[in-house]
Design goal:
- This protein has about 90 residues and is of the alpha+beta class.
- The chain has a domain of about 60 residues: Arc Repressor Mutant, subunit A (Orthogonal Bundle), CATH 1.10.10.
- A two-stranded antiparallel sheet has the order 1-2.
- A hairpin with a 5-residue loop joins β3 and β4.
- α1 packs across α3.
Length: about 90
């Protein structure tokens, strides 16, 4: 059975065309996502990466030097949540 891989999948080719699937950390996944120009909420992080603690991951990424902006938005139900994006300089 052949598996189709796409850009952004976590893999590397090792020997004789053998593909090794690797797993990126939540920080690596979030970094890549934000660097692609997308915005991210806690629900997005949970759905896309299985990350339950986006606020903690954002803190760690900021500590590592990433310039991440938080915009507070109001959902359709009236709840205020953070929406994260990368500030491009």
């Amino acid at each position: 059975m052949k598996t189709k891989l796409k850009v952004g999948d976590n893999f590397r080719i090792v020997a004789d065309g053998l593909i090794l699937i690797t797993s990126l950390s939540h920080n690596d996944q979030i970094r890549s996502y934000l660097e692609s120009g997308k915005t991210l909420t806690a629900m997005d992080a949970l759905n896309n990466f299985g990350c339950w603690n986006l606020k903690g991951r954002i803190h760690e990424l900021r500590q590592s030097g990433m310039n991440i902006k938080t915009d507070m938005i109001t959902t359709a139900t009236g709840k205020r949540i953070g929406k994260y994006s990368l500030i491009k300089e």
